[in-house]
């Protein structure tokens, strides 16, 4: 047996600003709470080891907070130098304890995310496996649905046109935004989309937290007739009791969890069975280490798993999951060639890659173009 201990010799963190091809608006914008989204912040990490391994990870942020994630990651990076990259759980704890006075969720764990992902990337590469094979793969393809064409700034005709385009490209479902004050406007859009793409295509809708429970109940009863795969974030993200009530009252499954920023914030949702579809987001809760707990809880409760965003990172974890799962297809990173690798769509599914680790590497030309700041620690 070879001794597989190793040592972290270099950590590099970068702050990137990824522009969107066009600004997008969900119900939060329509209700006047936010301005249209124009870019996504990324903090990336590259970890190098004495034995010659190199791991990559990232965390993202929409709107304000991206520079805070980066600042914290930069402060944490020196704590990894000289450590054994195999000890991921111990290093996760070490990084969290280093910033515990700012809490144990949100930015505190999101500063850890790029390192956690990079360390799992290294662990899988050392084992000569993909991440999903390392942890235990169950599927070689996962159904995927597209979100980018369903925002509220677009007319329903534009939404339908985009839907046809991505369905043809191999996506298996279409999500559109709802959550307007006059929910009958949303019902009309859903009806038109259903008519245009037919009864067999999966449709999801997302209210982005903009209804109260009684409005969501009323809207949900209209939406129940369209055989939707789920109704997402009908009410405020932290209202697990409201989500639970809707889940018990409506036929359409209730999805939520993307705004939760630690595994522990998700616990009441599991305990109350407040959702049918769990959307906890690996980068937002601190990486793969805490996400393994999410997989276990989802499995115990026989939930559908549909992690929010970050299709590149969520494809391997949905491939590990035994019950139904979905990957959320976003073209944003591919449009700017952020990674050297591209997703592979096939007849409604995203194909799980057998590349080593997470199977991702940053395209250096793009990184140079989008770079806002960087720091190397040896
Ligand atoms: Mg959403």
Can you offer a commentary on this structure?
This protein has 378 residues and is of the alpha/beta class. The chain folds into 2 domains: 8-129 and 362-377, 2-Layer Sandwich (Enolase-like, domain 1), CATH 3.30.390; 133-351, TIM Barrel. 39% of the residues lie in helices and 21% in strands. It contains 16 helices and 14 strands. Strands 4, 5, 6, 7, 8, 9, 10, 11, 12 and 13 form a 10-stranded mixed beta sheet that branches. Helix 7 (156-169) runs parallel beside helix 8 (183-197). The protein starts with 7 loop residues before the first strand and ends with a strand. The model has no long low-confidence stretch (mean pLDDT 97). The structure holds magnesium ion. Magnesium ion (MG) binds at residues 206, 208, 232-233, 258.
Descriptive tags:
16 helices, Enolase-like, domain 1, alpha/beta, TIM Barrel, globular, binds magnesium ion, 2 domains, 4-stranded antiparallel beta sheet, 378 residues
Low-confidence stretches: none
Strand content: 15-25%
Q: Mind summarizing the main beta sheet?
A: 10 strands, mixed
Total domain units: 2
Average pLDDT for all residues: 97
The helicity comes to 25-40%
CATH superfamily of the largest domain: Enolase-like C-terminal domain
Terminal residue distance: 30 Å
What is the general shape?
A: globular
CATH class call of the largest domain:
Alpha Beta
- Count helical runs: 16
CATH topology of the largest domain: TIM Barrel
**How does CATH name the architecture of the largest domain?**
Alpha-Beta Barrel
Domain Mandelate racemase/muconate lactonizing enzyme C-terminal: 156-253
Protein name: Mandelate racemase/muconate lactonizing enzyme family protein
Cofactor: Mg(2+)
Keywords: Magnesium, Metal-binding
């Amino acid at each position: 047996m070879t001794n597989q201990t190793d040592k972290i010799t270099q950590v590099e963190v970068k702050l990137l600003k990824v522009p969107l091809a066009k600004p997008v608006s969900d119900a939060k914008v329509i209700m006047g709470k936010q301005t249209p989204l124009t870019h996504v912040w990324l903090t990336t990490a590259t970890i190098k080891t004495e034995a010659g391994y190199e791991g990559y990870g990232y965390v993202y942020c929409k709107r304000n907070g991206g520079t805070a994630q980066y600042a914290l990651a930069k402060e944490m990076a020196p704590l990894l130098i000289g450590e054994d990259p195999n000890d991921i759980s111990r290093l996760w704890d070490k990084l969290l304890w280093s910033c515990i006075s700012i809490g144990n969720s949100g930015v505190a764990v999101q500063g850890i995310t790029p390192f956690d992902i990079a360390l799992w990337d290294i662990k899988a590469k050392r084992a000569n496996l993909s991440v999903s094979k390392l942890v235990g793969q169950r599927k070689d393809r996962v159904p995927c649905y597209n979100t980018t064409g369903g925002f509220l700034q677009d007319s329903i005709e534009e939404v339908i046109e985009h839907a046809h385009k991505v369905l043809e490209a191999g996506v298996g479902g279409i999500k559109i935004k709802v959550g307007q004050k006059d929910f009958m406007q949303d019902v009309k859009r859903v009806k038109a989309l259903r008519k245009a793409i037919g009864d067999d295509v999966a449709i999801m809708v997302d209210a982005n937290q903009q209804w109260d429970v009684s409005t969501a109940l009323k809207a949900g009863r209209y939406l129940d007739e369209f055989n939707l795969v789920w109704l997402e974030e009908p009410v405020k993200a932290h209202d697990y009791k409201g989500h639970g009530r809707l889940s018990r009252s409506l036929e359409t499954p209730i999805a939520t969890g993307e705004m939760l920023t630690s595994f522990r914030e998700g616990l009441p949702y599991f305990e109350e069975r407040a959702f049918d579809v769990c959307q906890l987001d690996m980068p937002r809760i601190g990486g793969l280490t805490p996400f393994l707990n999410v997989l276990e809880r989802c499995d115990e409760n026989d939930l559908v798993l549909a992690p929010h965003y970050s299709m590149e990172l969520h494809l391997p974890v949905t491939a590990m999951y035994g019950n139904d799962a979905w990957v959320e297809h976003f073209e944003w990173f591919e449009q700017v060639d952020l990674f050297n690798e591209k997703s592979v769509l096939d007849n409604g599914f995203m194909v799980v890659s057998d590349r080593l680790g997470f199977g991702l590497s940053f395209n250096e030309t793009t990184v140079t173009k989008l770079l806002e700041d960087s720091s190397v620690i040896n």
